[in-house]
Each structure stands twice: as C-alpha cells, then as structure tokens.
Amino acid sequence: MRKLMKKIVVTSVLCCACSPFFLATAHAERLKDIAGIQGVRQNQLMGYGLVVGLDGSGDQTTQTPFTVQSIISMMQQMGVSIPVGTSLQLKNVAAVMVTTSLPPFSQPGQTLDVTVSSMGNAKSLRGGTLLMTPLKGADNQIYAMAQGNLLVGGVGASANGSKAQINHLSVGKISGGATVERAVPSPLGQGNTIQLELNTADFSTASKVVEAINKKFGADTAAAVDGRVIQVKAPMVNDQRVAFLGALESLDVSPAQNAAKVILNARTGSIVMNQAVSLDTCAVAHGNLSVVINTENTVSQPNALSDGQTTTTGNSNVSITKEGGQLLMLKAGASLADVVKALNSIGATPQDLLAILQAMKASGALRADLEII
C-alpha cells in the first residue's frame, strides 16, 4: 500500500508537469508581485510577558523560576512587597513570548495582531489574559504595547486516564492586541529616485522591467543597477510620488523564464519541476533497473500548392525492462518527466530516484538545479 501511494504521488506530479500549462511561456505579472520598493518593509517585534487567569493550567513554578521572578518584579512595581523566602505556588500564571510584525508606514494608535507562546510548562493558555507587555525591535526600542484576552484554537480533554488534544494549547492569538506607540521611518528613496528590488535576482527580468517602465513613463525613467536593483526616477512631491508608485506597481511585466529546477522529496518520492528539463546522453547503472528512451523526429511537409509550413515534432519512445546487470540508457533530448514516469511505473523507490538523479547531475547530463528536501 505504501509503494502504491508513492507511485500515485509521483505520477500525479508528472502529469501536471507535462501539461500545456507547464510548458507555456511566461505570462505578464504585476510589478508589485515580482518586486518591492527598497526601504518599504516589515519589522519584527518581540516581548516577554505574563498570562494570568488560567484555570490551573499555568506554569509549575517549582520548575520555571523565571515565572516567579517575573511575578515578584511586577508586584514590586505595583507597590506590593513580598517577603524574602516566600514560596509562591501559582497555577494560573504562565510566562510567555509575544511576537508580531510592524507593517511599513504604521502610525501610533494603530492596532496589530499578536501571537502569544508559552515559554514554560503551562498545559494550556485557554482563557488567559495577557498583561501589558512592551514589544521591542532589534534596536531594543519599544514600538508597541500588547494586552488582551487570548484566543486559543486547540481543544484538549481527558477522561478515565486517557487524553485527547487537537492543535496546540500553548499558543494563542490576540486580534488587535497591540497598539503601535512609535512609527518607523520608511523613506521612499532619496532625492528624485527610488530603488526597486526584484524578489529573485535575474538579469533578464531586470532588463524587461526597465524596458516596460521606460515604455510606460518615458525613456531614461528606469535603469538597472544590477540583476536585482533597478533605479527609477520619481516625482519629488509626496502626493505625486505616491500616485506614481501606484501606477508603477500596477504595471504588467513578463518576467524571464526561471532557471530549471528539480525538487525531489526523498521521503515520499514526490518530484516537482518548474519547467521542461531535457537530458543529454548518459548511462546510469543502478541495480537491476533498465530504461531506454529514444527521441524520434517526425517531419510533416505540406503539399506543394498549399500555404502550410514544414514542421518537425519529436516523439519519445520509452521501453522499460527490469533485469539484472543492464544499463539505464538515455538519449539526448529525452524528457526528465518521461524518465521518472518510466522508473515509477516499474516500482522504483525514492532512494532509487535520488541516486539516479544525483548521478545525472554529477555527470552534467541533468541541466537543472537539483534540490533534495
């Protein structure tokens, strides 16, 4: 049954890979989907706090001394003095870490969603309340304050010594639980220029972006700095610059075709290819597997009086055998999808596929990036 499941996974992936959509040329995409503006980014925030009001599911204070220390420090700040040596046996308090992201252009007074995660051995945060927690950035400055009631999506139950739990009970969220206290400057370039940064560095795509911008807004508006950064001239006035950036982000660009990549999951045998990958002539000996792929070119020539054109198509003939001591012979032009499909049809394991693809890559016959996950 396990081998059958592996076969289904690999075959379904390859059917998608061989579909016309897989072989289609790159289509136009919005510039905002393939590039961002330099300086416009999120900033991670983090804080340490306490969750109170738990129904006996908090930290075991004997095993989490930092929870007790935090409670004593908080009580002292509120004017309550706890005698030295007092043993606090609390079950309704948990030490937590609070995390969130500060979006660009956030202003004081705006609210953010926060994630609250237990640090100690609390069994559940359900029903708890997060006390006021400062959220700091990488510069150790406070940018937001968090507080509120937790919403925990998990469910836990126990009866007659047996336990059942769905999802994590030690992580919760507070919608709008943090209030921004300080804005982070997000400069939109300096002077009369801004910098666009492609999500993936590619010289061909950078050239196409420059061409599309200059065609839309006039010559010499954009110039590529390298394979990722593009310098664009923009208006000086903020209102005009915002309108210009809105039109710029909505510009349609046809990105260059991505580099060939093959991703293999060594545990399940799933294989994903981002484009059609061809193989050069090679010979791989692996156990008792033997697959021969031949590519035959068929010429279609129209009648002498017709207006048609002569076309040439390639057909891959795959013959499969499973005998000891034979070689896996692959002719130039064979598709990797056909090779993997053939190996899968005779029951090749994920380890077999991994060994064969790695050998092809090492010999230079596989002209693609091979990534093993």
How does this model look, in words?
- The chain has 373 residues and is α+β, with helices and mostly antiparallel strands.
- The protein has 3 domains: 2-25 and 259-299 and 311-372, no CATH class; 29-40 and 187-253, Phosphorylase Kinase, domain 1 (2-Layer Sandwich); 43-81 and 88-180, no CATH class.
- Helices cover 24% and strands 34% of the residues.
- The protein is built from 8 helices and 23 strands.
- The chain has helices spanning 2-17, 20-23, 31-34, 65-77, 203-217, 238-249, 336-345, 350-363; strands spanning 29-30, 35-37, 43-52, 93-102, 111-118, 129-136, 142-149, 155-159, 162-166, 171-180, 193-198, 222-224, 229-233, 252-253, 261-264, 271-273, 278-279, 282-284, 290-300, 311-321, 328-330, 334-335, 369-372.
- The strands form 7 sheets. Strands 3-4-5-10-7-6 form a 6-stranded antiparallel beta barrel. Strands 2-11-13-12 form a 4-stranded antiparallel beta sheet. It has a 4-stranded mixed beta sheet with strand order 18-21-19-20, with helices on one face.
- Helix 1 packs antiparallel against helix 7 (336-345).
- The radius of gyration is 30 Å and the shape is flat.
- It starts with a helix and ends with a strand.
- Residues 1-25 have low confidence and may be disordered.
